């Protein structure tokens, strides 16, 4: 008889039996020995008494035939209720919710709806989102079925999100059904607070025991600007109602954006003086449609420095290993503050979160774009065993950490409001978020200006192309790998830059601006000494019209007339008048101007292309760009009676030939 036979008398018929023990400490007063038992026996759970340790050995099956054996010392306060249930029926954690980096995912966020009664600028695109048909969203019963499965596998906390979860009519009933799940310790909700005061008494009675309320400003007028709706007083009423009903702390989520509300950080800290709040300052994060820009982000350290100048006695509070927040407290204040540092200091190493979107997709990372549809498998009749396998495979593929903030801003992902449902992108090309604009990098010399734009290395690693402008040197173009410690590679000689912004055909820029003299005054360039040559230039622009205006343009129903024909004439006329519109441009005899406009149905857009030709001593880039600009502006003017939600974008030079600096072509 094997040494294990006296402990496992029912396993004698197993064909193979192997143990791999790992000692680990469970939270609180439990200590566990966890083992994986690989076998081909019955799939029923079995428990054995272990007299020597005065505890139990639990054998819990899984559909992959990996079994958990847990030796638990029985805690004194677990003789009844949920404590007894955990001891009798559950392992500390399921292998299916543990990823390849050993992270235990015991926290599930479920989106109840993609709809929202606000239009927060950092969350939802200004033009709104295309809603998923109701039939494709999870029903209440499907939500409970999936929640029950996750709780059975070890999830202890479920947070209901959206959209705005409190606009779902059956939200109270869903909370009540979740409360009945044995093993679930926390039921939370994240809300914008508009409906909270009205629903909270019923939600509390149903079992809701944690609340997060989104509030980005304490100024009513600014509130309406940020969320594009009224309702500040309702949110404040909801916060006070939550404290009255005994929710301590009430978490208040504040997304801090430069130029919007960074001046209110101290006011939010003061908000915690007399109320049991946890104000959580969240770094501005990139999602589709929110036009993320690095310059809008206020880092945690910058906020912390500002707060410490006012309250130097600010204390750091201890936190759990899986916490996403860095918590602080001003002594003698009732509440506290926290920082969510997703961008500047990620917390991927301790991430314990999974997400189910409103349309039933499982997301293992908030910033990842990989998803698996649990709804489709559930509706196709998949068994519990099959669902667990699917979940386990998705969790197993979770990466060690998400991309950096610059890479995230370029990745295709859902808008924040559609962490509820995939946006409809059929027939639509991916839009690249370009990070351009002048700024000073931390630690760089203030006299050296840096311009950063995205680039892609030939090695398929994402990087950044940096142009350094020093008064004593020429432009030096280098590509930096996003990884730490990589050596810069010279773009000009190595030809490593690719993508729409960087090409090996781009000649080295001049050291100086040509339209200013030595004293910095505007001047017109003397081209008299240059030889004549053939010059061409092609430029383009895109006008996003929206569905209604696009349809009217296509059907030639705009009251002002034929939009495309009028815009074409305007573009040609604009090219001929460039020297009158752009002060320092030469008056060039144009041999040919062509402006074409085409319709892009996938984007509901007008695509403009202009080309100019001459034989002379200076180029015609400005003529081509002016033609594209005037054509785009004319499209706007012709359609503005239909809608003002028209966007002109992608105005750029596509190619040029001739001149001392050579040819240019944007691939």
CATH class of the domain at 95-420: Alpha Beta
Helix content: 10-25%
Strand content: 15-25%
Principal-axis shape equals elongated
On the 0-100 scale, what is the average pLDDT?
74
> What's the CATH superfamily of the domain at 95-420, by name?
Aldolase class I
Quickly give the structural class.
alpha+beta
**CATH architecture classification name of the domain at 95-420:** Alpha-Beta Barrel
**CA(first)-CA(last) distance:** 74 Å
**Overall number of strands:** 27
Q: Give the strand line-up of the largest sheet.
A: 12-13-14-11-10-9-8-7-6-15-16-17
Which spans have pLDDT < 50 for at least 5 consecutive residues?
Answer: 1-92, 287-292, 402-511
Number of helices: 16
Task: Evaluate the radius of gyration.
Answer: 31 Å
**CATH fold title of the domain at 95-420:** TIM Barrel
**Largest sheet features:** 12 strands, mixed
Briefly say what this structure is.
With 667 residues, this protein is an alpha+beta fold. Helices cover 23% and strands 24% of the residues.
Based on the model shown, name its key terms:
667 residues; alpha+beta; TIM Barrel; Alpha-Beta Plaits; twelve-stranded mixed beta sheet; five-stranded antiparallel beta sheet; 16 helices; 23% helix; 24% strand; disordered N terminus
């Amino acid at each position: 008889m094997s040494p294990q036979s006296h402990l496992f008398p029912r396993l004698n018929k197993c064909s193979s039996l192997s143990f791999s023990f790992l000692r680990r400490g469970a939270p609180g007063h439990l200590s566990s020995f966890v083992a994986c038992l690989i076998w081909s026996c019955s799939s029923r759970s079995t428990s054995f008494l272990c007299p020597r340790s005065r505890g139990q050995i639990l054998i819990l099956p899984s559909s992959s035939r990996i079994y958990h054996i847990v030796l638990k010392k029985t805690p004194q306060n677990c003789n009844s209720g949920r404590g007894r249930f955990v001891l009798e029926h559950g392992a500390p954690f399921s292998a299916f919710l543990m990823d390849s980096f050993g992270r235990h995912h015991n926290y599930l966020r479920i989106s109840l709806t993609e709809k929202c009664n606000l239009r927060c600028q950092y969350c939802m695109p200004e033009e709104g989102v295309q809603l998923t048909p109701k039939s494709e969203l999870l029903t209440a019963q499907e939500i409970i079925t999936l929640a029950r499965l996750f709780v059975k596998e070890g999830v202890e906390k479920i947070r209901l999100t959206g959209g705005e979860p409190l606009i779902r009519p059956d939200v109270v009933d869903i909370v009540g059904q979740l409360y009945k799940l044995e093993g679930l310790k926390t039921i939370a909700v994240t809300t914008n607070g508009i409906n909270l005061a009205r629903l909270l008494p019923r939600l509390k009675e149903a079992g809701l025991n944690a609340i997060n309320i989104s509030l980005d400003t304490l100024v009513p007028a600014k509130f309406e600007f940020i969320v594009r709706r009224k309702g500040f007083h309702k949110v404040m009423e909801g916060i006070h109602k939550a404290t009255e009903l005994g929710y301590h702390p009430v978490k208040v989520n504040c997304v801090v954006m430069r130029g919007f509300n960074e001046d209110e950080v101290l006011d939010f800290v003061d908000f915690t003086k007399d109320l049991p709040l946890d104000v959580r300052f969240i770094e501005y994060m990139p999602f589709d449609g929110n036009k993320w820009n690095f310059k809008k982000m206020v880092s945690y350290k910058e906020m912390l420095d500002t707060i410490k100048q006012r309250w130097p006695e600010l204390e750091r509070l201890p936190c759990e290993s899986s916490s996403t927040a860095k918590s602080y407290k001003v002594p003698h204040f009732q509440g506290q503050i926290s920082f969510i540092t997703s961008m500047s200091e990620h917390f991927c190493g301790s991430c314990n979160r999974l997400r189910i979107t409103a349309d039933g997709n499982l997301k293992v990372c908030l910033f990842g774009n990989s998803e698996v549809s649990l709804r489709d498998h559930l509706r196709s009749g998949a068994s519990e065993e099959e669902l667990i396998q699917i979940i386990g495979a998705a969790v197993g593929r979770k990466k060690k950490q998400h991309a950096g903030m610059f890479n995230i801003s370029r990745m295709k992902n859902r808008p924040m409001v559609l962490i509820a449902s995939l946006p409809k992108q059929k027939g639509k090309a991916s839009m690249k978020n370009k990070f351009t604009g002048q700024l000073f990098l931390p630690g760089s010399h203030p006299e050296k200006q840096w311009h950063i734009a995205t680039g892609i290395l030939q090695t398929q690693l994402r990087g950044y192309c940096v142009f350094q402008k020093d008064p004593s040197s020429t432009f030096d173009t280098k590509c930096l790998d996003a990884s730490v410690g990589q050596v810069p590679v010279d773009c000009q000689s190595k030809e490593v830059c690719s993508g729409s912004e960087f090409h090996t055909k781009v000649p080295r820029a001049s050291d100086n601006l040509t339209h200013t003299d030595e004293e910095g005054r505007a001047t017109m360039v003397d081209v008299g000494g240059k030889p004549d040559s053939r010059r061409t230039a092609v430029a383009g622009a895109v006008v996003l019209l929206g569905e209604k205006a696009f349809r009217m343009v296509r059907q030639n129903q705009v009251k002002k007339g034929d939009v495309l024909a009028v815009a074409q004439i305007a573009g040609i006329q604009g090219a001929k008048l460039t020297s009158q519109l752009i002060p320092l441009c030469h008056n060039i005899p144009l041999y040919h101007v062509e402006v074409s406009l085409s319709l892009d149905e996938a984007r509901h857009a007008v695509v403009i292309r202009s080309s100019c030709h001459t034989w002379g001593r200076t180029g015609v880039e400005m003529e081509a760009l002016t033609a594209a600009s005037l054509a785009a502006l004319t499209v706007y003017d012709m359609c503005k009676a239909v809608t003002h939600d028209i966007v002109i974008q992608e105005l750029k030079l596509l190619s040029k030939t001739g001149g001392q600096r050579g040819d240019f072509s944007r691939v």
